[in-house]
Amino acid sequence: MTRDHSTSPCDAPHVRQTGKPIAWMKETVIMKIQFDVRLTLGIFVFVMAATGGWSQDLVFSDGFGSGDLWGWSSAPGGTPAVGPCPCEIAIRGSEFFVDPILGNDLTGNGSPGNPWASIQYVVDSMVDCSDQHGTPQNPGAPVKGGDAIVLIGAAGHDANLEITGCYNSDWVTIRASSFREPVLASVHFRGSGLWRLAGLNFFNDSNGTMVRVEDHSSQGPARNIQILNSHFTSGDLPTIPDWVDHVSDAMRLYTGNGPLLVRCNEMVNVAMGFVVGGDHTDVIGNTVEYFSRDGIASGGHFNRFIGNRIYDSVKLGDGHHDDFFQSHMGANPDLSSDVEITGNIFMNRYGSGQPVDSLGPTQCLSGFEDGPKTRLRITNNICKGDHWHGITWYDTNNSVIINNTAVGGSNFSGLPAGSSGWPSYSWISIEGTGNTIRNNITTRNLSGGDHNHELQPGDELIYFADWLGLDLSLVADSPAIDSGNPDGATTHDVEGTPRDAQPDVGAYEFIAP
Q: Are residues 23 and 94 in the same domain?
């Protein structure tokens, strides 16, 4: 197959605080990200010198450069529409096939007519990669950087795949022949680099972890790993004992340098959605429905959480304080810095998809540990967990909390039966210095700032399009319309809609019908 050096829309450059991207590829790349139908931001071009250093900053078609910390993810001060899912990938080289039913590792050559049988065999023996020091592993093996390993069929694949100390010269993609058909229980990266998982189906009901990425003391760092377009589940869990006995984590990502990209994945019935315990990780456009611990737990530097949809905490009665998003680094202090949390929806819907006795308020977007946590950007998020802690960050400095909607609590309508003893309201509480708290809607503001709206009981019915139906966009005569401060306001809303010169407060900009 002729090698295709086009770049996938799934890819994204990762940007340091200095505005210098970390390399995804050692070549000149032209990248196009397709945004939501209401926002097409265009083509990004970036160039990497042959030495591995960047010769110029990222440049946007609208002239906005990467001197901004948030890089490709926004126009100045803005929020992205992250584009359609599944995102597309381009295979740069040849494709090799694995069929556990019809394949043979001894006589196969990886062709469609003569496939191999075991993905573990292929990873261990058929990939021409190097160790962390550049020493060749399997020199002359047929699968090389830029190639894809295609999994055929649903059943029979190695359930627990291990990828250890294997660094490719270009992306090697493990993908499904039929979208989300191959079933695996887990993939564990110990070290390794330039690997991509795409369109797989993870089923793990053994209290395990479905994808784990980690630096390794002897095998080296994990870097340039992508997990895309895949499905994760612990199966049908109709009762709380079923959850306790079977639920597994979706992803645990521990890397000191990255970059890691996790995009357009779907999780249903998991314990942890994402645990991000390192740096330079992008979690973009994923969906989590029903989680029993945290939707996202994170601690580190230069991480971005953009356009995710996290729904429905499942309370197991085990004393764990579930969070939609919690920042911590395992223990005090939490020194997270240069983190973007933007354009996400965190919401309890109290529907029929979880045990009826597992409903309860959930902390939404928080960082409780000692810090200091610095240079955080928390914008255009929806928080409706009906807990005191809507957006709560302690020991947090030089950060911006702008155009969020953090609302709910038992003082407000629409909660399920038995909720009268829940917290009365959700607040925004930011403790620290040098912070900008602006243009937010909340049900209790403990942080001052400017142009923030604090709702009183009953206001929820005049601010939002359909409060009881959980549509928190603005109704035509909402007091939030045109009442924001344009200074520092996000240029687009949670869905990518451009804001006008007199922006609305909250995560949504009103669109006249």
A: no
For all residues of the chain together, what is the average pLDDT?
Answer: 85
For residue 290, the SS3 value is: strand
Looking at the domain assignment, is residue 263 inside a domain?
A: no
Query: Which residue from 205, 202, 201, 225 is spatially nearest to 213, judged by alpha carbons?
Result: 225
Full-prediction pTM beyond 0.90?
no
With a CB cutoff of 8 Å and minimum separation 6, the contacts of 421 are 410
Tokens 């990255």 correspond to what residue?
Answer: 258
Sign, CA dihedral 347-349-354-357, equals: positive
Please report which confidence band the pLDDT of residue 85 belongs to, taking 50, 70 and 90 as the band edges.
confident
Q: Which residues of 153-168 are buried (b: 16+ CB within 10 A; e: fewer)?
A: beebbbeebebbbbbb
What pLDDT digit, counting tens, does each position of 139-184 carry? Answer: 999 999 999 999 999 999 999 999 999 999 999 999 999 999 999 9
How many secondary structure helices (H) and strands (E) does the chain include?
Answer: 3, 42
In terms of residue numbers, what domain contains 76? 1-81
CA distance 328 to 331: 7
